[in-house]
Fold these 3 entries.
Entry 1:
Amino acid sequence: MTETIPDLALLPVLRVPDECACYKKDAGKILLGAFGPRAKSWSMAGIHESFVFDAFPPHFDRFEPILKATINRLPILADAGIHTFFSGPESFTPDDAYNSGPAPEFPNVWIAAGFNSVGIQSAGGAGIAQAQWMEDGEAPFDLGDMDIARIQPFQRNRRYLRERATETLGLLYADHWPFRQKATARGVRRSPFHAQLDAMGAVFCELAGWERANWFAFPGEAREYSWDWGPQNRFANAAHEHALIRGGAGFYDMSSFGKLRIEGRDDEAFLNRV
């Protein structure tokens, strides 16, 4: 928060994702909010119960690159003194999605949490969706990405969280490319066929910690994603694979798929009915 700026005109709220910054006028001052593209992990040994709405020591070395970009964007900041500098903690889910809906294995317990620093702007939509879900007994539209059951026990691992949280904060404010893959905390779950698929040129995606072959690079082609809003760099690879399967045969590694165990006196009759 800057010092008071005389004759400050009415300004729109401005958000510049490429510069990790958000600006707004506030009582004659400029309020600048910033998120670094790479977060710094904290509290890996736990949060002391006395830490309530508290602040961190200022980390001007981490803030300086963002501040330089904001002064270039809004030159008036170069001469405005800093009234308040606040650096505090935030919490993020491993995939940047909410935890919203009925709690697994706890009848009539509902959760609305993990809003990744956008809780206020998301509250209206999340609230009406959950209210309709409670009233009707089913989600009003596809909320699978928010399903609490997607969270896996291994995601409590502290090394996993330390790596992943540093990435997810920055990605929340980056372009949300279709099918974008996380780069950190990978290789948690690998199927028995992982090495063979890797040797065949597989480029992997992650689902619930599983490494799945998403597409296969052609010989000599870089095995990496190039994000785009239109057809992405793997488009021709996927088309080639489709043609091979249509004209011949294919192999699917389904190790990452969920399994249902059915047992009991009427298990055979139940499965036959299904």
Note: The longest helix spans residues 119-136.
Entry 2:
Amino acid sequence: MATNTYVGAVDQGTTGTRFMVFDHGGQVVANAYEKHEQIYPEPGWVEHDPREIWENTKDVITQALDQADIEADQLAAIGVTNQRETTLLWDADTGRPVHNAIVWQDRRTTDRIEQLQDEGKADDVQAKTGLEPDAYFSATKAEWLLDNADPIKTERARPADVRERAEEGEILFGTIDTWVIYNLTGNHITDVTNASRTMLFDIHDMEWDDELLEEFDVPREMLPEVRPSSDEDLYGHTDDDGFLGAEVPVAGALGDQQAALFGQTCFDAGDAKNTYGTGSFFLMNTGNEAVESEHGLLTTVGFQRSGEPVQYALEGAIFITGAAIEWLEDMDLIEDAAETAELARSVDSTDGVYFVPAFTGLGAPHWDQRARGTILGMTRGTRKEHVVRATLESIAYQTRDVAEAMEADSGIDMQSLRVDGGAVKNNFLCQLQSDIIDTDIARPQVDETTALGSAYAAGLAVGYWETADELRDNWQVDREFEPEAAGEYEDKYDRWSEAVERSLDWARDGGD
């Protein structure tokens, strides 16, 4: 492989867009980032302007290439990774969105999900999609847009109804990967991982499902073609007359959490990673089997390479981890996140204090929207050091809750957990995590695993990397943590479970 070629990754996230360029060793050679506006039209509603996202995408690609003095034709391929579930519709003729994108966090379709549950349809949806029916996913967002987007001005005698045009294939549906790929290549494509988050896709038959499309009244004509995450047939090329001035293959896409799984080279059943951000996303590769969860996890598509079977994953979403540390800052208990390790180390234990950071309810495996943040066990002798330590322990305990659910569902004994995200720079937390789940913790040198995963998917598709083994060789440990005091936490974990029980079902109507 020529030494002066690279692979680029568009990482389109909830708060901003990043473009990263990687070399053959998986090292970062360029990185540019821009934020976009968060739009809140009503309480609980969250939107993004898709045009702003596309403009920012072009800007960060140009900035990163300029920064590293790389020409566009030195890119062997581009991969895409994205905030999952966020949904938009656009006009096939003009390429213009018909409405802002509805973001994954948006709760406007909660009533529709409750209707689905009341009609006894939730189990059927979960059996096909692997998803716990929720307003989080794309199906009800698409339905809302079709019913509520303003009619479009056309050459017809009257403005055309969006749904009517969608049935004629004149309106296109997509998640953000599809929007970015469409603007890069002109082709209407999604990958298997993003399709699996729409709640319109049967993950067993690996196709759009007619009954789900009928339930949510989404016309098949508006749906993208579903392709492997790493696609030797390519999604298309950039236009040499376009902003890059070169024909670059676009060949890989994965939703952000699956991209992190791929970037952490979790290619085999039992391989697992946890991304510690505002919340945490814990994914375990379950191989070619879509394991049905009996413990509150989601079954999802992990990834698919060209000509190979689909690899599935179990996923546990923990709502509040890094955000609990931000809360300590908001409460003036710490000045910055870096202080937490030193403060937590300064005491031998939490002195019996437990903190359940259920600020927005509890996610996997508890799924209680009415749980609320709870601190238990305080005495007159409790100091901020105890609360800080209890906060770090809560991150590790919540991760163990999900790890135990995964092992129970899959029957796979997890040998090691690969970690990434901002919070894993904290050595104290990593050691604590190892002790509390009694498993080795591996932190990689390159922690931008989401962008790296989509770069790997695109690079494999075009032969920039020949084999998965090459990627495994690239994966370098920054530091490994082994259990040192696992026995100390067994009784404490039982007490944690009691603390969680106390936090459940606290919020009544109106939040009080």
Note: The chain has 16 helices and 23 strands.
Entry 3:
Amino acid sequence: MASGNKGNQLTAEPRTETKGSALRKLRLNGRIPAVVYGSDMEGTPVSVDAKEFKKLIRTGRSEMFDLVLEGGRKVPVLIKDYQERDGKGLHADFLKISKNKPIRVRIAIDYQGTAEGTKTGGILQVQETELEVEALPDNLPSVIEADISAMAVGDKLTAGDIKLPDKVHLISPAEELLASIVIPRAVEAENEAAENTAEEERATEEGS
């Protein structure tokens, strides 16, 4: 069966081998081992063309598309999980979905803007790059936008601070830390040293 991506579909070929050597051979031949499963479907081992998969994944992991199985059967899926090493695909999990059933997925966070705190010596520290949300497949965004431009030194952004699109519900804990603006340790150490020197000077003045 020829592999191909026509619009929002990807052709999968059946896979019987599950051992490491066979999987390595698949990858060397430009394919990614994968499994497709769902509430009414047992895990089915397949493989997909690496280049076509990469084209598809650029649109975002929450985009629904048809996985074309053996015999031309089309199954609506989302990419539930994807692993790669050194830019090469290792494995993918496809989740069969129903358009009228809410699903939980992790969606990439797109941090937008330049934080005010970084203009005064602070550093943006990102703790999380994805949020777990729940929604009907058609309502899932491809990315979740987070405006960090107003963040000053010491400010923290949590999952609960993110404004989600309509009909999309947060599953990640609201208090989960996503990003913060911190002072570099070297600068912090300098500030502490300066404060200690000032205190010593004040103590000397008071004692004289």
Note: The first helix runs from residue 20 to 28.
